[in-house]
Amino acid sequence: MTATLLLWSIFLAQILLVAAMACAAFRVLRGPRAQDRVLGLDTLYVNATMLLLTFGIRTGSTLYFEAALIIALLGFVATAALAKFLMRGEVIE
Amino acid sequence: MRGGLMRGWSMRDWLPFPLLTAALVALWLLLTESVALGSILMGGVLALLTVRGFIALDPPAGRLRRPRAACALAALVLGDIARSNLAVARIILTPGKTERVSGFLRIPLDMRAPYGLATLACIITATPGTIWVEYNSANNTILLHILDLVDEGTWIDTIKGRYEKRLMEIFE
Amino acid sequence: MTHLADLPVWAAIPVALFLVTGAALALIGSIGFLRLRTFYERVHAPTLGTSMGIGFVLLASMLCFTVLQSRLALHEILIAVFMVVTTPITLMLLARAALYRDRSEGSGDVPPAPPA
């Protein structure tokens, strides 16, 4: 009973997160400007982090946690570098 | 430096940034998921080395004066974040065009403490619906962008009365 | 999926609730990408997911693994702390970059740079 409830709620959460990722991906592809694309990419990373955590709960494996942490780290570094690039045209001054 | 001269000096000399060091040790323990003596020692060594590296970056001076007030502020901010989550969700989900205006707002500040300003920036940006865009150190004003700018006076009161006053108590 | 059956009811219901709430908040934030019109409005949208959205998912994960392993699973706090620290930085950098670009193009929609 609890397993069914949990399975369905995890499934629902995953569908919601994939839809959220689709909205973010739409902004990445559509633009219209470069800052919109970077913002979409950042949200894509955050949603991917959450999706990995739901996978972790589903499989009961803590390995997904490490992956989520790394995705979050990569997202931060990528967005910071891209924002810096948009501001000055170079990443390291 | 406040407190006893001899003791305060030697303590700060041996262990600068005690809060940062403790936070780094806690970070290491959480990452390794153990509280064994080995992890604590390893975390301590790594934290001390990291703090040495941090000092090489020449961070601005400043300290947390009132930890209890800081905890109270954290609870307040958590509540505010929950409330503005609902407010922004309502704005996004309201169908059709509404008369909501969003826009920039420039606010003069009294606070000058660098860590206080950094914390204010984090609070404002982490709260949905408001974002810190620019800080002008020449005349100490900040530029915010606000999603639901109904009444400029209310927003200025919120930022200055609710957050800035408390942050000045904590950091200045 | 045998481990999910081991979860008692008192833990399973909050886990399910937290998960769906968190995911729904992230979705609402991302829907803002479609509905809001200017970049400066859209920059507010992802904060829903990065504040309470991921908070709820992390709570669900912590509760689930704490009950399953019958010991405190706290390392989710790391992701929470990391999100709290990094999201303001990325959003502020992005907003400043956008402002800089708009100003250098002479757009009238943004406030002018303060006199140096």
Automatic annotation (TrEMBL), chain A:
The chain crosses the membrane at residues 6-26, 38-57, 63-87. Keywords: Cell membrane, Membrane, Transmembrane, Transmembrane helix, Transport. It comes from the Bacteria. It is a multi-pass membrane protein. It is found in: Cell membrane. Belongs to the CPA3 antiporters (TC 2.A.63) subunit F family. This is K+/H+ antiporter subunit F. The lineage of its organism: Bacteria, Pseudomonadati, Pseudomonadota, Alphaproteobacteria, Rhodospirillales.
TrEMBL record, chain C:
The keyword Membrane applies. The chain crosses the membrane at residues 12-36, 48-68, 74-95. Keywords: Membrane, Transmembrane, Transmembrane helix. InterPro entries: PhaG_MnhG_YufB. This is Monovalent cation/H(+) antiporter subunit G. It comes from Azospirillum isscasi. The lineage of its organism: Bacteria, Pseudomonadati, Pseudomonadota, Alphaproteobacteria, Rhodospirillales.
